[in-house]
Amino acid sequence: MVKSTLVVRASDALPLAASVDDEQTEQSLQEHKQQAKLVFRRINPNSEPQCSIESGPYTLHYIIVDNVVFMTIAEKSYPRKLAFSYLDELSKEFANSYGPKVETARKPYAFVGFDTFMSKTARLYQDTRTASAASSNLDRLNDDLQDVTRIMTKNMEELLWRGDSLDKMSHLSSSLRADSEKYRRAARNINFNAMLRQYAPMIAIAFFLLIFIYWRFL
């Protein structure tokens, strides 16, 4: 069953629209919605355009279309093919209604009115039998378009752990670069001091010879 839907701008994770969930759904999905926000923040130009992320009893399915991420949180048993068909319908309607306005949106949930279409479409997909029948009648399930075997599946814990690890590695890399520069400066100072100790006596002798010659003959 489709439980909740979120629409955000991919480039900066600005929320553009979301389904209006009842209190019980909101409470049960609180943790997963927080996970969804983390996923949105980590999406970049190299991210998979379609992906399913398993998290406990739910799966977060998303697609990225024209700098917009459409994500639905569904029960783990809900067919992936229906989930992506649902998201595909949302993306097409959203592009028709708000496409040119996406890049100029400045405030969160600028397209809150899209909830009406999301709610209506989600109701068609709530029951898998009803959804399959409706999709068949309206030719919504295109096998070539919705080939879910080619869509990446990830585990939420691994994804978040990998993200944390990448953040830590980035911080460690910055620290190593700073330390390397510090040690490089220290090495230059050590080499300079060593050179001074090696050649200082000779320089001093030459200096005194010059003074003696200047004083003796001039």
From TrEMBL:
Annotated TM spans: 199-217
One example of a Gene Ontology biological process annotation: protein transport
Membrane topology category: Single-pass type IV membrane protein
Location of the Longin domain: 6-118
Gene3D superfamilies: 1.20.5.110, Longin domain
Gene Ontology, cellular component aspect: endoplasmic reticulum membrane; Golgi membrane
Principal cellular location given in the protein's record: endoplasmic reticulum
Span of domain V-SNARE coiled-coil homology: 137-197
Record-level Gene Ontology MF annotations: SNAP receptor activity
Location in or out of the cell: Endoplasmic reticulum membrane; Golgi apparatus membrane
UniProt keyword annotations, A-Z: Coiled coil, Endoplasmic reticulum, ER-Golgi transport, Golgi apparatus, Membrane, Protein transport, Transmembrane, Transmembrane helix, Transport
Similarity remark: Belongs to the synaptobrevin family.
Protein name: Protein transport protein SEC22
Lineage: Eukaryota, Fungi, Dikarya, Basidiomycota, Agaricomycotina
